[in-house]
């Protein structure tokens, strides 16, 4: 899951000016962080004019951005086979020569593992160690529809400008985690994350996330 913010410095290095055609939502110009109690909040608010690439960051929605990225890769010669799970790596000696998906084997000169932080394929090669649960977090996110005009009014933004807002403190009830809010073109991404180690020892703690989101919604929206 992504909260919905893309820092452009890396993608700008290989696709200069990508934002002119990519389906970005808004350029982040306002940064806020709030420290919450049960009944009050202290907020730091920083605003600046839209920075120039590659210092820019954008709010994005992956259901729009991912297909666009796939199309750019296909134009460069890549082939996508969606909906297929890679079960194992094909090896010849110390060299990986392809992947196995069910009964099918796909040969490749180069295999790039991009199966996330919990890379089972990487572990099969002893390339990715089993990390502590303290290094991971699990999040929930809600998408709230608002008109562009209403978003710009409530968050004091100009057209196409966006806000990134982080939350810490109550009402997390001592849980290790935090909240986030990102303004899209005609919606707001609102979410909260909790450390994975917390959930292993206190599995009911995750149920409080919805209460937390409701509290932030009342405060921010």
UniProtKB/TrEMBL annotation:
The keyword Glycoprotein does not apply. Residues 64-143 form the FAD dependent oxidoreductase domain. GO terms for molecular function: FAD binding; oxidoreductase activity. Its cofactor is FAD. InterPro entries: FAD-dep_OxRdtase, FAD/NAD-bd_sf, FixC-like. Keywords: FAD, Flavoprotein, Oxidoreductase. PANTHER family: ELECTRON TRANSFER FLAVOPROTEIN-QUINONE OXIDOREDUCTASE YDIS-RELATED (PTHR43624). This is Protein FixC. It comes from Salmonella enterica I. The lineage of its organism: Bacteria, Pseudomonadati, Pseudomonadota, Gammaproteobacteria, Enterobacterales.
